[in-house]
Amino acid sequence: MTDGLVVVDKAGGMTSHDVVSRVRRLAGTRKVGHAGTLDPMATGVLVLGVNRATRLLGHLMLTEKAYDATLRLGVVTTTDDAEGEVTATAATDGLDEETVRAAAAEFVGDLLQVPTAVSAIKVGGKRAYQRVRDGEEVELKARPVTVHELVVHDVRLGETAELDVSVRCSSGTYIRAIARDLGARLGVGGHLAALRRTAVGPYDLDAARTVDELAEAFTVLPIADAARAAFPARELDDRQAGDVRVGRALDVDLDGLTAVFAPDGEFLALYEPRDGVARAVAVFTG
């Protein structure tokens, strides 16, 4: 099986682990991982690595992600999304569209965001959501995230209010935390009603296939193509390629994390500038 990425359009109701298990069977290998989970209620882009490409995933998680979402105001839940139990409600008939849009605009930029208590973040070696399930009180610290863009497409006002948004943000940003915090900012509470991830870095829905489609025709984006799509590329000569194969530093100028390739197009490694030279971050040969 070719080393590479599989871009899945995850269906609602499936966990990310469900998708990994299906792809392991289709690929005939246990070496399958994913670049960032999607909650069961969420749909959309889930990027999986197969064989050696699993080692790319940690670097892909540093890229930005994009989502389409529906945020519901006036209802607070235990999980900050539609799957949780309702803990509070408030009337939203006093809101107007201008106020809602102005409040949403405040969530663009560099933010300190408190993740939802049922996130997969580890607290003392244990997932936060597991601590919540075990009846523990979980308080997570605010973390820096960046929301590059938040576009409000539609605002529907009434007994409860909803807005449809598109968000482009850094990895690690919780859209349900934006829904929660927007509701709090407006004084009525809120939660995430629907979520569809439309892109992870350069991999979008156009490149994605459903699990059923993959079962009919399983395809992998080769690791060299995946690396070229996600990182700046640098072509090397034979001598430099030989140095990379043994992890030596290169006397070349790089602007940042870069995928380096042998003269025949083979993807060799990820390198970054450090201490005046280019040094290996991860080598994929051998």
Automatic annotation (TrEMBL):
<feature type="domain" description="Pseudouridine synthase II N-terminal">
    <location>
        <begin position="24"/>
        <end position="175"/>
    </location>
</feature>
<dbReference type="GO" id="GO:0160148">
    <property type="term" value="F:tRNA pseudouridine(55) synthase activity"/>
</dbReference>
<dbReference type="InterPro" id="IPR015947">
    <property type="entry name" value="PUA-like_sf"/>
</dbReference>
<dbReference type="Pfam" id="PF01509">
    <property type="entry name" value="TruB_N"/>
</dbReference>
<keyword id="KW-0819">tRNA processing</keyword>
<feature type="active site" description="Nucleophile">
    <location>
        <position position="39"/>
    </location>
</feature>
<dbReference type="InterPro" id="IPR015225">
    <property type="entry name" value="tRNA_psdUridine_synth_fam2_C"/>
</dbReference>
<dbReference type="InterPro" id="IPR032819">
    <property type="entry name" value="TruB_C"/>
</dbReference>
<dbReference type="InterPro" id="IPR036974">
    <property type="entry name" value="PUA_sf"/>
</dbReference>
<dbReference type="InterPro" id="IPR014780">
    <property type="entry name" value="tRNA_psdUridine_synth_TruB"/>
</dbReference>
<dbReference type="Pfam" id="PF16198">
    <property type="entry name" value="TruB_C_2"/>
</dbReference>
<dbReference type="InterPro" id="IPR020103">
    <property type="entry name" value="PsdUridine_synth_cat_dom_sf"/>
</dbReference>
<dbReference type="InterPro" id="IPR002501">
    <property type="entry name" value="PsdUridine_synth_N"/>
</dbReference>
<keyword id="KW-0413">Isomerase</keyword>
<dbReference type="Pfam" id="PF09142">
    <property type="entry name" value="TruB_C"/>
</dbReference>
<comment type="function">
    <text>Responsible for synthesis of pseudouridine from uracil-55 in the psi GC loop of transfer RNAs.</text>
</comment>
<comment type="similarity">
    <text>Belongs to the pseudouridine synthase TruB family. Type 1 subfamily.</text>
</comment>
<feature type="domain" description="tRNA pseudouridylate synthase B C-terminal">
    <location>
        <begin position="176"/>
        <end position="219"/>
    </location>
</feature>
<feature type="domain" description="tRNA pseudouridine synthase II TruB subfamily 2 C-terminal">
    <location>
        <begin position="231"/>
        <end position="284"/>
    </location>
</feature>
<protein>
    <recommendedName>
        <fullName>tRNA pseudouridine synthase B</fullName>
        <ecNumber>5.4.99.25</ecNumber>
    </recommendedName>
</protein>
